[in-house]
Amino acid sequence: MKLYYYNAQENGFKLGNFGDDLNPWIWHRVIPELFEGQSDSKLFVGIGTLLNDFLPPEPTKIIFGSGAGYGKVNVQNDRFKIYFVRGRLTSKLLGIPDEKAITDPAILVKSLYQKADTKKRYKTSYMPHHLESEMNREGWQQI
Fold first, then answer.
1. Which of 33, 41, 60, 132 sits a CA distance of 20 to 30 A from 121?
2. Does the pTM exceed 0.85?
3. Can you tell me the distance from the alpha carbon of 57 to that of 79, in angstroms, rounded to the nearest whole number?
4. Do 139 and 29 meet the contact criterion of CB atoms below 8 Å apart?
């Protein structure tokens, strides 16, 4: 199975996208045997807003927590095996049962990285979008 995710650097950006770039880090730790050999017979679609018309029509896609956006995708065919999606907005956009709306699989970072004795320090955290130009927008320093 091949891991499918958005790679900002392959798409001309100098910097990567933190969320998307978590894919190889997480999945090769959680289920490494799934990607042995990197066969192109199936695509594993995990973290990111990947359920859109950029998704290749072939081969079969294993959907494991991705979100919908940036276009449309028809998941109502035999080339999709949906285990779960990122949230209810995605399940509604795709017309699948809300029971498939579980969470963003990036939540696994905490169990793979955080030390057991780490305490929460901030009430709110913010994850900016991947476009590096957003960091240079007016008002960013105030934020």
1. 132
2. no
3. 8
4. no
